[in-house]
């Protein structure tokens, strides 16, 4: 068994699509109309047949509440691995990404946390 799809609640699918593709460098794999929303699937630019990230609208009240509570409590909604956390941190800072935690050594790992502007905190980890 393996993970093939995971989702992330977002407040605005268009804004999230722009942030995740233009700022983070993910690649749009699917963008399918589904009523008033869309099935938007992104993949890593270097692993285009890998796990898909779905930009899920937070239209349901439970989704909105969940997203708001974990954001307020400072809990990242998901984690992305990077080869060089300091290089990626500096790249993202230069293009205006707001970090709530700069790269910090935590045992054998180094992590950083940023705001995706769509209602989520995202953790990066040096893999």
TrEMBL record:
InterPro entries: Glyas_Bleomycin-R_OHBP_Dase, Glyas_Fos-R_dOase_dom, VOC_core. It comes from the Bacteria. Transmembrane segments: none annotated. Pfam families: Glyoxalase (PF00903). Residues 1-127 form the VOC domain. Gene3D superfamilies: 2,3-Dihydroxybiphenyl 1,2-Dioxygenase, domain 1 (3.10.180.10). PANTHER family: GLYOXALASE/BLEOMYCIN RESISTANCE PROTEIN/DIOXYGENASE, GLYOXALASE_BLEOMYCIN RESISTANCE PROTEIN_DIOXYGENASE. This is VOC family protein.
